[in-house]
Design goal:
alpha+beta, disordered C terminus, 30 helices, seven-stranded antiparallel β-sheet
């Protein structure tokens, strides 16, 4: 352990995983590896203790009896990664806690981001909160200035937060350098009585998170002090744990810490009882009596921490972090700098991460078990459930996971009657060798894997495929098909993870570890274009090995808000802040026994462009980078940020300020150096020779693409350094099996097995069949994945390169690919309202431009009559040609909601528009890009100049954002086209075209099956329903189903006429509603494409509000009428009660370039607000969530107040607003916003008159209500008379003076559903959103089922956390 402590005893590293506990012991260079079951109560209580006992027995050469305390004087150090925290989180078995929060925010975690996890689930499941009770503290602070201020006013004050002066000042300087106004100080006595009540109820752990506590911690500190005096055993304060902006993330994190830390402490104290002598750095220092041993736990950020300092928040990724450290240290070479993708495939999950540039990829917001944590963590993403993933044949497609067989019953071959899994497919195909697998199965736990059981379940699947498709496939083909689909399921997210950050996956190596990795590594690498795979000799216990190699880490962070300047005071202030953090970190590492020679620091600034939320953690440039890139300046953070931003997002915003959000120091205590040669050094030195024939252990028939081949099997321990084994071959030992395919070869090094992929002859032949070509279900499943992956990657490119909050943060966009006729092939399910409507637009444009388009052309359109939804949704489409360039093969299109495109109000969502021109720029069809040249002049005319020519209208209020977002859309389309061109190169044009049609036919079949089932349920009767918009306009629907053909007519006859208002909905919107509702009712993950609409005939009465004229206003049609159409369809099918049926569109701002007026610099803000979801036959409604046609996130409360001149008084659940019933409807929310400067505020909403309906006897929900709280002059008859009499005097004298007798009162004025008002400073808008309807009669027994989400245990790093709400179907 370096000079930290003298050598004396065994070094032990342990990874306690979900299924197995891996232990590595080392003494004087000798390694001992032990693998044992994590749960085996019949034999031992605690797996890590049992592992240490076996290791110590080995080194002491005698068996230490179980139960005997282990002698720490013989142990140098114990390092451990544990799943205790993760398990407590998954099983919700943590400590009972109370959350303390600012008054008005008690439901902040129930509402969360307001988006629903899976957009097609009618039974919405949001994660449960961790607290048992909430205490609201009557205290309030806010930020004095706001970021969107066009004047850039900055308040400077002397008193600082945390000092005595802050106790008496109204405005103080926060830790982040922002001025904080104290509006309400908390009363100590009141807090004491509130907390005492909680304590007396039996709760002993408390989590405190107050508004803006990250920059003004004084009030949190007071609550913590009182809680300590009362006697709470654990107190988590958000400003101590993670002083970063975002109330919801910080509150979840602080709750997780309070919930998990007691569970960890309990586990540690039980663990310590197993030793004679103490554990941890304190016991080492004291060394009295029995000598202590160092004991450190792995944290989620890849650093170790002393046992005494290990807390719940930092423990969630404790186990997997060891694996990342393990492959990073053993597989990355500092000289060649080839980045590595880590692929950890175990029994229950497969985790993916990346290591490059010589440092770990950290993320600061991740989700595990439904809990979003804000804390530095290694960026680990679960991409599939691993060897235990279940295999299904559903709806004509091969499906793998996400359900897992777990450890009980496990795969079929475990002899416990389990289902077919990936492990069974590998075993049957000969890719898993039973003789190398431990014999721990069967009644007496002494039998091997059961090959016959695997064959039986796979045969059942083959029979099912024959029954449903008529296609005969042998068991080999079926098993191999499932493995191919499993590999595709895994590579899709791996590609996304690397490419989302601007990396090219093919330029990496793949480091595979975990039990099942070696069986899939070659196929995964092939798909990603990776040429070399590294498998460490300890790959099956690499997480434990990583613990042995890891460093002790101390993380420190403080908020900031400086505007970066390359020189001057700002840099000096930041250097001072950084130095203070370094000192704190240095002291913490001294306390753990390190000296200066072993301590190094990584210094970071968290930076972003003004007006964006995409902050990047920038490391201080190394000496080398400073010399070569920044003229020797190692504090060139600004230039480093610009360089990194261009690399990750593809653009820079040179005209914008760069803001520093946080200062961070990572102190590292170097405790152990890795002495082995790197892979590249070994590769240079190794003498390669073909493996000798006599080293072959045996031979087996193993299935590879095309059939079974005689395959030699080698024991890993029999192979020597330099041995080269040509594929096909199998390499195995007791812990892993490595499959070397015919297209690869293996090379044995001292530390690794290297697999090299041969590049020649790869690429799939195009199959040209005579006559009718048959659909191969395996290929269909793969193309389903591939097409969807392309749409997703287009979405990622758009999100990455866009600038506006709407696209980058709220994810208000969609990307899709279409066939040559404009038929939808794949649409990543970002927003349901875009689903079916884009193809109407693409078809129309394809007709208009037939024969006139060239390669590199891009068309722009947003007009409702041309397949648009509402004007802010701007669509760009781009054709892709064949090689000759004379035939369009398909189109790529992207649609994004632009924050402003002009019109009569800021935000371009006017509540009172009567004509289309009042809603902003309307574009029927224009060529935006001609053969690659972007026509910016035309954009300025279309978006800025033309809209301002109409009376009372302005052009766009954010032209730069429009141009940037349009460029991002062009690059997203370009991405889609290059990916499909790659697909054509791989499979051939004919095959790709064939499966474009086949995947649409597949979706068509599913919809036909659904319609047949519905017809049976309703005994062949027609389905009908009617509902009303708030102005009384009816939307009527009759559905006639032809049960034999599985076809339906959706007839909207009886729907009201076009409205002189803005709730008219273009025809495309009704198609979106139909495709969305059908997908929800199928409740299977089917491809979303044109095929869904093939069995449907839609009849929309001409001249109705669902088929408006060219110039009719439509802005509300997309966000309000679409929700009503959805309600009407679900009502006809009797699928569920009505949800809130509304998006509650709120906009506010000022400024613009209205004709005849001077241009005023200002800002515009737009948000949609959640409500209640409808209950159903087997589920309760959900409170405070977005439903049906939208799923956008709400801006975090603290970010909201930082960016805009507002005070969020309340954001809570509107209790009792959901309809009562056997299953209750979800409640809406109350959002109460006070404005601090005069602004124009507009609300565009529905369900303020007609209630969301209940079904099957359930009651209706409450309507919504929009209130304007304003101060008005109090008037009485006497004062009016007095004023009249003294009127002349008033006029002659003090016309501008206030009348002393004037009194003001607060009045609540009902704004109705659609209104706009000029609000003054101090005025508030209170939006009370509708609930969801109830299902079934009140008093009937509930039959709601709580289904567990199979992906609940998945680790959702930066990539998945961002996209769970947007992309997962």
């Amino acid at each position: 352990m370096g000079a930290v402590q003298k050598e004396r005893g065994v070094r032990i590293a342990i990874d306690r995983g979900g299924t197995f506990t891996d232990c590595v012991g080392n003494l004087d260079g000798e390694d001992v590896v032990i693998k044992l079951l994590s749960e085996d109560p019949a034999n031992y209580e605690d797996a890590p203790l049992e592992g240490i006992r076996r290791i110590m027995s080995h080194f002491q050469k005698h068996d230490i009896p179980r139960g005997e305390a282990l002698d720490t004087s013989k142990i140098d150090s114990i390092r451990m990664g544990t799943t205790v925290a993760t398990n407590a989180l998954l099983e919700r078995k943590g400590e009972k806690i109370a959350m303390v929060v600012t008054k008005g925010f008690k439901d902040c975690l129930v509402i969360g981001t307001q988006s629903r996890p899976k957009i097609f689930d009618l039974a919405i499941r949001k994660p449960d909160v961790l607290y048992s009770s909430v205490v609201e503290i009557d205290e309030r602070v806010t930020l004095e200035d706001y970021a969107e201020d066009p004047t850039r006013n900055l308040t400077r004050v002397e008193p600082k937060a945390g000092t005595a002066a802050a106790q008496t000042s109204d405005v103080v300087m926060g830790l982040s350098g922002e001025a904080v106004r104290i509006l309400q100080r908390p009363e100590g006595d009141k807090i004491r009585s509130q907390l005492q009540e909680v304590f007396d109820s039996g709760i002993k752990s408390v989590a405190v998170c107050l508004m803006h506590g990250y920059t003004f911690p004084d009030h949190e500190a007071l609550v913590g002090k009182i809680a300590k005096e009362i006697g709470f055993q654990h107190i988590s304060l958000s400003h101590e744990l993670m002083p970063m902006i975002k109330l919801v993330s910080r509150a979840t994190s602080v709750c997780a810490d309070a919930y998990l830390t007691p569970a960890i402490k309990k586990y540690i104290s039980g663990f310590q009882k197993g030793f004679k002598g103490g554990l941890g750095s304190e016991s080492v220092k004291n060394e009295a009596g029995d000598k202590g041993a160092r004991c450190e736990f792995m944290q989620s950020d890849g650093g170790l921490v002393d046992v005494e300092k290990f807390t719940g928040l930092k423990a969630i990724l404790s186990g997997p972090a060891g694996g990342v450290v393990g492959y990073a240290i053993t597989s990355y070479d500092e000289n060649t700098k080839i980045p590595v993708i880590g692929f950890d495939m175990g029994g229950t999950s497969t985790d993916v991460s990346r290591y490059g540039e010589g440092r770990y990829d950290h993320t600061f917001e991740t989700t595990t078990a439904g809990v979003t944590i804000q804390s530095p963590q290694l960026d680990i993403n679960t991409v599939a459930a691993g060897g235990g993933s279940r295999l299904f044949f559903k709806n004509g497609l091969f499906v793998v996971g996400p359900e897992s067989a777990g450890a009980h019953p496990g795969p079929a071959c475990y002899r416990k009657g389990g289902p077919a899994t990936v492990t069974d497919a590998n075993l049957f195909l000969g890719r898993l060798l039973p003789e190398f697998f431990p014999k721990i199965f069967g009644k007496n736990e002494d039998e091997g894997l059961d090959l016959e059981a695997s064959e039986r379940v796979l045969q059942e699947l083959a029979d099912q495929i024959h029954r449903e498709t008529g296609k005969r496939m042998d068991v080999d083909e079926v098993a191999y098909g499932f493995l191919t689909v499993a590999n595709e399921t895994m590579t899709r997210p791996i590609r996304s993870i690397t490419e989302a950050k601007g990396h090219d996956s093919s330029k990496h190596r793949l480091a595979t570890f975990g039990g099942a990795g070696g069986q899939h590594a070659v196929a995964i690498a092939e798909s990603l274009g990776i040429k070399q795979i590294l498998i460490h000799r300890y790959s099956s216990v690499l997480s434990a090995y990583g613990m042995a190699l890891a460093d002790v880490v101390d993380e420190r962070q403080e908020p900031d808000s400086s505007v970066w300047k390359d020189a001057g005071n700002v840099v000096e202030e930041l250097k001072t802040k950084m130095e203070k953090l370094r000192e704190k970190s240095r002291k913490a590492l001294y306390d753990q026994g390190f000296d200066d020679s072993e301590i190094v620091f990584e210094e970071y600034l968290n930076m972003r462009y003004r007006g964006t939320e995409s902050a990047l953690m920038i490391i201080k440039p190394s000496k080398e980078d400073a010399e070569t890139l920044y003229n020797g300046n190692d504090w060139a953070f600004g230039k480093a940020f610009v360089k990194h931003h261009r690399y990750e997002f593809g653009f820079t915003l040179d005209e914008r300020d760069v803001i520093v959000d946080d200062v961070r120091v990572r102190g590292i205590g170097r405790s152990f150096r890795y002495s082995e040669k790197s892979v590249d050094e070994q590769l240079k030195a190794v003498k390669q020779q073909d493996v000798e024939a006599n080293k072959k252990h045996s031979e087996s028939k193993v299935y590879f693409e095309g059939g079974r081949l005689n395959t030699p099997i080698y024991k890993l321990e029999d192979l020597g350094v330099g041995d080269v084994i040509q594929g096909p071959a199998m390499l195995a030992d007791g812990t892993q099996t490595i499959v070397v395919t015919p297209k690869s070869s293996a090379l044995v090094l001292e530390t690794h097995v290297i697999l090299d992929l041969k590049t020649d002859g790869s690429g799939k032949e195009e199959v040209k069949g005579e006559g009718e070509r048959e659909v191969d279900p395996i290929m269909l499943s793969i193309f389903g994945h591939r097409f969807m992956a392309i749409a997703e990657q287009m979405g990622r490119a758009l999100q990455k390169t866009s600038v506006s909050t709407n696209v980058k943060e709220r994810l208000d966009f969609s990307c899709a690919i279409f066939d040559a006729t404009g038929g939808l092939v794949a649409n990543a399910p970002h927003l349901p309202v875009h689903l079916g409507s884009m193809s109407t637009c693409v078809r129309r444009q394809a007709e208009i431009w037939k024969g006139e388009l060239k390669k590199g052309d891009v068309i722009i359109s947003n007009h409702p009559s041309y397949g648009g939804t509402h004007l802010p949704d701007v669509t760009l489409l781009m054709p892709a040609f064949n090689e000759a360039g004379d035939k369009i093969l398909f189109y790529a299109a992207s649609r994004a909601h632009h924050a402003d495109i002009g019109g009569i109000t800021a935000g371009s969502m006017p509540p009172h528009s009567r004509e289309l021109y009042q809603e902003g720029a309307s574009i029927k069809t224009e060529k935006l890009v001609s053969e690659g040249r972007f026509n910016e002049e035309r954009v300025i005319e279309l978006f800025y100049k033309e809209p301002a020519q109409y009376p009372g209208c302005s052009g766009t209020r954010c032209l730069a954002d429009n141009i940037n977002d349009l460029r991002a859309q062009v690059s997203a389309n370009q991405k889609g086209i290059s990916l499909i061109e790659g697909l054509i190169k791989e499979y051939g044009e004919e095959t790709v075209q064939f499966y474009m049609v086949a995947i649409q036919n597949n979706a068509e079949q599913q919809v036909r099956s659904l319609l047949k089932a519905v017809s049976k349920q309703f005994e062949g009767k027609d389905l009908s329903s009617i509902d009303y918009m708030d102005d009384g306009s009816p939307i009527q629907l009759k559905i006639s189903i032809d049960a034999e053909k599985g076809e339906a007519i959706f007839d909207f006859e009886g729907t009201g006429p076009e409205v002189y208002g803005n709730i008219n909905a273009p025809e495309a919107v009704s198609y979106s509603a139909i495709i969305y509702t059908l997908r929800c009712m199928i409740s299977e993950d089917i491809p979303l494409n044109q095929g869904c609409l093939k069995p449907i005939t839609v009849k929309i009465p001409p001249k109705s509000l669902l088929s408006p004229s060219d110039n009719a206003a439509v802005v509300g049609g997309n966000v309000l009428t679409s929700q009503r159409v959805t309600d009407v369809i679900f009502k006809a099918f009797e699928a569920c009660a009505a949800s809130q049926g509304d998006c509650n569109n709120l906009t506010f701002g000022f400024g613009g370039n209205v004709t005849g007026q001077d241009e005023v610099k200002g800002f515009g803000y737009y948000e949609t607000i959640a409500g209640g979801s409808g209950a159903g036959p087997t589920w309760e409604g959900t409170d405070g969530v977005h439903t049906h046609m939208t799923n956008t996130r709400i801006t975090d409360s603290e970010v909201f107040e930082r960016r805009y001149p507002v005070l969020l008084r309340e954001f809570s659940i509107r209790k009792g607003s959901g309809g009562a019933g056997q299953h209750r409807g979800g409640d809406g929310v109350v959002r109460d916003i006070e404005f601090r400067i005069p602004v124009q505020v507009s609300i565009l909403s529905e369900r303020r008159v007609y209630h969301p309906y209940g079904l099957a006897g359930g009651e209706d929900a409450k309507c919504g209500l929009n209130l304007w709280a304003r101060k008005v002059q109090k008037a009485s008859w006497e004062t009016s008379l007095r004023r009249l009499k003294s009127g002349a005097k008033q006029k002659a004298g003090a016309a501008g003076e206030e009348d002393d007798d004037v009194e003001y009162e607060e009045r609540y004025i009902n704004l109705g559903a659609k209104n706009s008002a000029p609000m003054k400073a101090g005025d508030r808008i209170i939006v009370c959103t509708p609930g969801g309807g109830g299902w079934g009669k009140v008093g009937e027994e509930k039959i709601s089922q709580k289904r567990l989400d199979p992906t609940d245990a998945w680790r959702k790093g930066s990539h998945t956390a961002r996209e769970d709400t947007a992309l997962q179907a």
